[in-house]
């Protein structure tokens, strides 16, 4: 047995993980570790548009509803992911629709999903990955067809559907000080200045064992200073295979540094991992030659990174 992370976290910071809804339904050991170490959960896929509405007119809520119910029963706060994204959009939603039609479809989608879980989701990723590496708006179906206002509109629709939910913008490659992070800061400042209901910024943090992001705490603080919550939303640290003790140690250091950065910023509300076990991670499929990115190995044994977090929390 190992010390449960959720019992060691400061009371104002949640520790979360992405959850694979299908594994949740079938794997008791997965459920046990999830309920023991974590007090927050994000649906890895179940709340994406393509999963919720594969065909027009019909929503398929089962996997997502089951996860929300598990979270409620086990004292995990639900983080909603994600309402507006250019990826995992159902194939029937395409640029052959007119701008008016697409705008209306998007409004209905945001409203339907947020309303269904009103009061059950503490924060939503309202828009995901809307920026390019240079900090400008990413060229997506939404930007091309609806123009840049789709971002503000999405926040307003989400806020109307659940006025108590915290509304986040989420992206990757922004956890360190990068041009993209600068662009994100400009974008959220503009949104705040025009009264858009945006409350927080999510930093995905998909890291690689040998590349540390630069000045994470200082970067997060720039957003906190503007009155925004910040959150680490999708942390994992992929290792180039073969896994060696040295690489596991470097991985542990990065996990610990990201936790330290979150704890150093007063508005950091959650520290969320993109999956907790190497048995169920997106990395091997998307980064051939890499793996072992999570806190637990594929036998569900805690790795060095897990004990590094435990040690850091005990000292904190
Ligand atoms: O559900 C279908 C299944 O019915 C079908 O038979 C199968 C065949 O391809 O695909 C299944 O869907 C897959 C889905 O995961 C569920 O397993 C998709 O193809 C696959 O593309 C999808 O990948 C997910 C990816 O986002 C795209 O949505 C990954 O699991 C998930 O980890 C990843 O998560 C993203 C975050 O949402 C945003 N930030 C980056 C992060 C990593 O890419």
Automatic annotation (TrEMBL):
InterPro entries the UniProt entry points to: GH, GH10, GH10_dom
Cited Gene3D superfamilies: Glycosidases
Record flagged with keyword Hydrolase: yes
EC numbers for this chain: 3.2.1.8
Alphabetic keyword roster: Carbohydrate metabolism, Glycosidase, Hydrolase, Polysaccharide degradation, Signal, Xylan degradation
Source superkingdom: Bacteria
Domain GH10: start-end pairs: 1-312
Catalytic activities: Endohydrolysis of (1->4)-beta-D-xylosidic linkages in xylans
Family per similarity comment: Belongs to the glycosyl hydrolase 10 (cellulase F) family.
Name of protein: Beta-xylanase
Organism: Micromonospora sonneratiae
């Amino acid at each position: 047995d190992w010390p449960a992370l959720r019992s060691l976290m400061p009371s104002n910071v949640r520790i979360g993980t992405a959850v694979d809804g299908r594994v949740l339904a079938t794997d008791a050991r997965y459920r046990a570790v999830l309920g023991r170490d974590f007090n927050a959960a994000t649906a890895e896929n179940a709340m994406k548009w393509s999963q919720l509405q594969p065909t027009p007119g019909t929503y398929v809520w089962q996997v997502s509803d089951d996860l929300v119910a598990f979270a409620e029963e086990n004292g995990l706060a639900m983080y909603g992911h994600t309402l507006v994204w250019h990826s995992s959009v159902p194939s029937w939603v395409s640029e052959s629709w007119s701008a008016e039609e697409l705008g209306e479809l998007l409004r209905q989608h945001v409203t339907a999903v947020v309303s269904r879980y009103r009061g059950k989701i503490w924060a939503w990723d309202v828009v995901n990955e809307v920026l390019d590496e240079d900090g400008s708006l990413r060229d997506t179906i939404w930007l091309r067809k609806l123009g840049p206002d789709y971002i503000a509109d999405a926040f307003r629709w989400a806020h109307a559907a659940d006025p108590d939910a915290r509304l986040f913008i989420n992206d990757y490659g922004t956890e360190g000080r990068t041009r993209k992070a600068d662009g994100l800061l400009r974008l959220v400042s503009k949104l705040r200045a025009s009264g858009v209901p945006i409350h927080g910024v999510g930093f995905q943090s998909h890291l690689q064992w040998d590349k540390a992001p630069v000045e994470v705490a200082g970067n997060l603080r720039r957003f906190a200073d503007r009155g925004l919550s910040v959150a680490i939303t999708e942390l994992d640290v992929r290792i180039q295979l073969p896994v060696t003790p040295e690489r596991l140690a470097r991985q542990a250091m990065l996990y610990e540094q990201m936790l330290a950065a979150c704890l150093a910023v007063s508005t950091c509300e959650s520290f969320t991992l993109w999956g907790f076990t190497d048995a169920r991670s997106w990395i091997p499929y998307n980064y051939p030659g890499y793996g072992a990115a999570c806190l637990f190995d594929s036998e569900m044994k805690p790795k060095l990174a897990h004990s590094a977090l435990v040690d850091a929390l005990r000292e904190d």
